[in-house]
Write a structure and sequence with these properties.
Elements lengths: L3 E2 L10 H19 L12 E10 L7 E4 L1 H15 L3 E12 L3 E12 L2 E13 L6 E16 L14 H47 L10 H19 L1
Parallel strand pairs: 2-7
Antiparallel strand pairs: 1-7, 2-3, 4-5, 5-6, 6-7
Amino acid sequence: MNNYPTAMSEQQSLAPETAFTVASTFLAYYYSEFVKLNELARMSDLYDERSYMTLVDFRDEVPVVAHGRNAVANLLAKLDSTLGQRKVEIITVDTVALPHNCVQVICQGVMYLREYRRVFLHVFMLEPTAYRTKTYHIASDYLRFVDSEKEVIPEGAVVIAADQVAAYLEESRRHIEEEQRRQLLEFQQRIRLQQQQLMQQQQQKAAATMSIPAPTSRQNRPVASASRDQPHTQEQQQQQQ
């Protein structure tokens, strides 16, 4: 039987530190396998023929109980199909060292599904495997979904996996630099255009100033001459009379 190996003390009850180490190592392995799609039934190898698994959805009034490795495998396969693609975040972990080197593990966490997040409580009873040193198996576990909330992603938000954060940040940095460079080029082009327009206006003003003719003297104006000759003609007419 492929049970999960852990360090085990020869005493009848493990020290609290050892129990916590056993629990932490077990949970890291268990949930790394739990999130694998279409492979959940294989985790029945962590149980034996006397093991129990209890599953309770938050709407269920009666829990579903599986006894024995085959029954556990069937229940895990059904759970695998129901959950679909998933990720798990463990929020709290408590451990209790029990007699006969057993370890009780109580953990709370959040399971992220497609469009939903489900808060859950998972309790394990880890028991040493007979005739196999430093090895534990799941004597019983109790999985209860406490709540289910629709996952609402804010508009404009980006959902990425944890291992893609560095690449995303680098790509975002490049986009920001390119946008800043583009804005700088546009600003420089506007400045050059304004300078060209200003120079053209100055050149046009200078050309207009050079083309304006000088004003003529009063003696050369024909209108003024005519106005001065008119009274003289009237005096001549009076003398002739």
